[in-house]
Amino acid sequence: MELSTKGRYAVMAMVDLAQNSEAAASRGRAVNLSEIAERQEISQSYLEQLFARLRRRGLVASARGPGGGYRLAANPDQISIGAIMQAVEEPLKVTRCDAHVRVGCLKANRRCLTHDLWDELSRHISLFLGAVTLADVLSRQMPGKAEALAQFAREAAE
């Protein structure tokens, strides 16, 4: 399974932002990207690119000037990991098959023998990431198997 650096770093930075927003706000400031870059050992210029995308998708708000930086645009329990991944336009690839290809992933538009398996796995992962919020990650409370299966059943019924 492949989760790109872009997706991993965006999630790490957003969790850091969520964790440090309250302390920064109590000092009358936003969280500076240089602080996140230092704590998470991520290039600041790379974070600037990611946060531009996150801002365009409405997940963060920026403030300029003294005390400037970034704030979450919503509460941590309202921002899903799936939304962060989508904001940085990073699809999760479980194989070389494109889960959204209905024609075929092999030459001559043939589907590989395991295409449906990977398509279903991609759906499960997407549902899981959509159900996990920044607050869940911070509290280390991931949705359990029962909740994930119930969510999947609800989504499949729609």
From TrEMBL:
Keywords per UniProt: DNA-binding
The keyword DNA-binding is annotated on this UniProt entry: yes
InterPro entries (UniProt xref): TR_Rrf2-type_CS, Tscrpt_reg_Rrf2, WH-like_DNA-bd_sf, WH_DNA-bd_sf
Residue intervals passing through the bilayer: none
GO molecular function: DNA binding; DNA-binding transcription factor activity
GO cellular component term of the entry, any: cytosol
Pfam families to which the protein is assigned, alphabetical: Rrf2
Keyword check for DNA-binding: yes
NCBIfam families named among the record's database cross-references: rrf2_super (TIGR00738)
Descriptive protein name: HTH-type transcriptional regulator IscR
Source organism per UniProt: Candidatus Phycosocius bacilliformis
Lineage summary: Bacteria, Pseudomonadati, Pseudomonadota, Alphaproteobacteria, Caulobacterales
